[in-house]
Amino acid sequence: MTASTTSAVDVTVTGDGRPFVVGIGGTLRANSSTERALRRCLAAVEQQGGRTALFSGEDINLPMYSPHDESRTPRATALVEALRAADAVIVGSPGYHGGISGLVKNALDYVEDMRADPTVYLDNKPWGCITCAYGWQAAVGTLGQLRVIGHALRAWPTPLGVAINSAEQIWDSAGELTDATVESQLEMLATQVLTFARSSGANP
Fold first, then answer.
1. How many of the other CB atoms lie within 10 Å of CB of 41?
2. How far is CA 35 from the centre of its chain?
3. Each residue of 112-131: pLDDT tens digit?
């Protein structure tokens, strides 16, 4: 299944009543394992009745966040505006040296721009986590870090987080997901995010 996810370039934050789920993550390498997993999860969100936007790769290749510099690039502005409108967020990060990548962490630092909003940070919003690493130790360790960041941003991490061991053969030569366990976990994560989004106030 391929996601029809809206890109960061043409994201429309005004909705049509469907829960709006923003995906953030991946690497600067197009079609990385992390980006593929995030796209697959967002596709499941859309299949289950949600609306999505993906910020990945160059979309989150942003200047280092500085709370003392109020200038923002168009990409940074688009990310923050999408997060303001989001009913839920799904974050995907590779595990680099046992932790979240600098690219993804810097993008999440821009949530600080929402510190004075009526809804501070991501207060009361579902927060789904996906990690990919070449080995279980880094994948699971990075997943724990993403969950802690979600708590710090006042979001609700879903009960299920998906850790993927990229050392295992889970994609075919065309980049399609072939591991049934990972597929079911990504679909379950989509279900939990939408369930919590609807129960916390998003329109069905």
1. 27
2. 9
3. 999 999 999 999 999 999 99
